[in-house]
Amino acid sequence: MAYNGIAKVQHYVPQFLLRNFGNGKKNQLYVFDKQKARSFASNTRNIACESRFYDFQVDGEEFSIEPALSKIEGAAKPLLQRIIDEDCLAVLSDDEQAQLAVFLSIQYTRTRWFRENWRMLPEILGEKVRQMVKDDEKLKYIDEYIGTLDENKTKKEMAVIMMKAPTDFAIHFANKVWMLLKTERKRPFIMGDNPLTFQNTNDMGPFGNIGLAVRGIEIYLPLSPTHALALWCPSYEKIFRDALERLRFVSKIAPHLIAQKLHDPSGIERILDAMETGKPLVYNSDEVLNFNSLQVYHAERYVFSSIDDFDLARKVISKNSETQKGPRYQVK
Q1: Is pLDDT above 90 for 39?
Q2: 248 within some domain
Q3: Torsion 278-284-287-293 (CA) sign
């Protein structure tokens, strides 16, 4: 349904990505609700969307950024489909990869998860300031000017952030090392309603210091049950090259260690090959498990799959009830 030519139901995960996880002519996929811990089947039209999600008012006049988002999706769709069909990242030109960096910058800012974090940020900052300030008069000033944003103001600020995202964020996606990931349909990738996920295993545990420009950051986006994008910090390439050189040296002076798989360079070799050639890096079961765990963890509420198997999601939320919603900003 549309009003003034603009769709009323607006998706914060593009429908073309959702359809890649669908089955049959009706594009049915399976959905897990983290808050209710239940799964159900749904058409892709009815999920990862809200009524007038990108519409807002200025002085009583209606505006929407939905048409602009549709154009960006339209440019990205054939590029991502070509990667899947050709099973290779090298099919993209530099200009086409730059287009996808713009798409990723928009996707990063357009979800319900991002909006909820932005809406709550003034309240979080206010609480931090209240802990630091003891003067009652100053506290009154803080309470007057710092608080949670209302819905329309949040939408307006989100529109500004999204329209500036290609300038502010695309460069951070573009300058990563891009790789294509692949798995088998019997152990598929899943996708959350906040599908761009982050990991930093070099700093403070598996999730580490998270940020687009942080050293060691890894960014992931599922494209289908069998394909996904990985964007890694450029520092990894040198780390892996240095490690491979050391392992090859070991293989010359102690070949028995290679034979015993104690210092096997094959894992590093397949990563570097994916980095250099654009051919897919085939994930093993543990790697798929980590990828899917990130999707569950980062999802604001819903997780999508081509198969009705959400044991992993149930395990994640049973271990930590806070994962029933997406991760929240923290001010330290």
Answers
A1: yes
A2: no
A3: positive
Q: So what's the pLDDT on residue 260?
A: 47
- Summarised one tens digit per residue, pLDDT across range 273-286 is 999 999 999 999 99
Dihedral pair phi/psi, residue 231, rounded to 5° = -125, 115
254 lies in a domain?
no
Residue range 102-110: mean pLDDT, rounded: 98
Cα separation, 285 vs 13, in Å, equals 26
Query: What distance in Å separates the CA atoms of residue 73 and residue 114, rounded to the nearest whole number?
Result: 18
What is the identity of the amino acid at 92? L
Within-domain flag for 327? no
Contact 157/149 with Cβ under 8 angstroms? yes
Does some domain include residue 262?
no
Tell me the residue range of the domain where 204 lies: 2-238+268-320
Measure Cα distances from 30 to 140, 148, 270, 291, 301 in Å.
49, 34, 32, 18, 14
What's the structural domain count of the chain?
Answer: 1
% helix, strand, coil for the chain, step of 5: 50, 20, 35
